[in-house]
Amino acid sequence: MEGTNYLTVAYLGMIAALGIWTWTVVVRSRSIETRLEAVESSIGIDVSQADGIATQSTDGPQDDATV
Amino acid sequence: MRRRIPEMFLGIGFVGIMSTLFLGLNWAPSVSINAFESPAAQRIFYWHVPSAWAAFIAFGVLFTGSALWFFKRSPFGWRLHVAGTEAGLACGLMTVWSGCVWGAAEWGTPWDWTDVRLNTFGLLTLLALFLVLGRQSQPDGVETRDTFSTFGLYGFVLVPLTYVATRVWQIRHPGPVIGAGEDGGSLQSSMALVLFIGALSFTIFIIGHMMISMRITHLEQRLEHAQKILDGGN
Q: What is the Cα A67 distance to its own chain's centre?
């Protein structure tokens, strides 16, 4: 019986954690997507230039890139 | 439709995990009462092993992403790194948590500081925690990414060490179940089937999570870029 209690606690905890984690990332993704679509369509920018850090690190010296 | 592929992976994976739990609790045979202190708690194995498997996949992705960023300056590599750390942390915590609960029932203690596998896996999870928290607290930049990528590269050493730990220094933790070679024939076929469904479900689930995490990182970078343009930068 004690083993079953351990099992129930472990499974319920992990299912809840998995569900909350999944729900959070999906909602966050959709929220950012909606905001971004609105912003990008209003100013008309190129998606390929999105990661400015990577662009900086290949274009210029690394020491200045974090500024 | 293509944009919803990660959500499909998550949905399929989640249903598979729930099916694994149902089969593990209701269909898989019980283990010998003589061999285990707590035979009922042994059924946590159908969650513990697949989540450890998924954690190793995530740490493999973290290593690949770290190498791609560090050596190739690949934005895709950085997104892989971020996805690998988050998935590695989540799966690592699930493995540690399920292991502690199982250990408390079976061994009478949730953690054994003398067992190498427990400690190397615990260190891997702590590494993922450090990378996730570090990335959130530091400003994004080349040096920050280089530092975290270096940790991702060197930290991967713990993965093969964790895998071989029960072969070299077996103390309390049972030996390998996945990829056990000639020693792996001790599982009954129905137990092996449930374990396989679990491993497959966790793999699909964690791939879905990493895809959505990469998408979020990409969206955040685009949002930051748009913000700079709005603020008058380039």
A: 23
Could you read off the pLDDT of B140-168 as tens digits, one per residue?
888 999 999 999 999 888 888 887 776 76
pLDDT tens track for A7-53: 777 778 888 888 898 999 999 988 988 888 888 777 776 665 667 67
| CB–CB contact B97 A7 (8 Å) | no
ipTM for the complex shown: 0.71
Confidence of residue B36 (pLDDT cuts 50, 70, 90): low
Among B225, B230, B231, B234, the residue to mutate for chain A (most A Cβ within 10 A) = B225
B106-133 pLDDT, tens per residue?
778 777 787 778 888 899 999 999 999 9
- B contact test, residue of A40, A66, A67 with most B CBs within 10 A: A66
Cα–Cα–Cα angle for B10, B40, B114, nearest 5°? Answer: 85
Burial class of residue A32, CB neighbours in 10 A (0-12, 13-18, 19+) = middle
DSSP letters for B35-56: T-S-TTGGGGHHHHHHHHHHHH
Q: How many CB atoms lie within 10 A of CB B57?
A: 19
Partner residue opposite B75 with nearest CB, options A10, A43, A54: A54
* Residues of B in Cβ contact (< 8 Å) with A45: 225-226, 229
Q: Output the DSSP codes for A16-54.
A: HHHHHHHHHHHHHHHHHHHHHHHHHHHHT--GGG--HHH
Residues of chain A positioned with their CB less than 8 A from the CB of B99: none
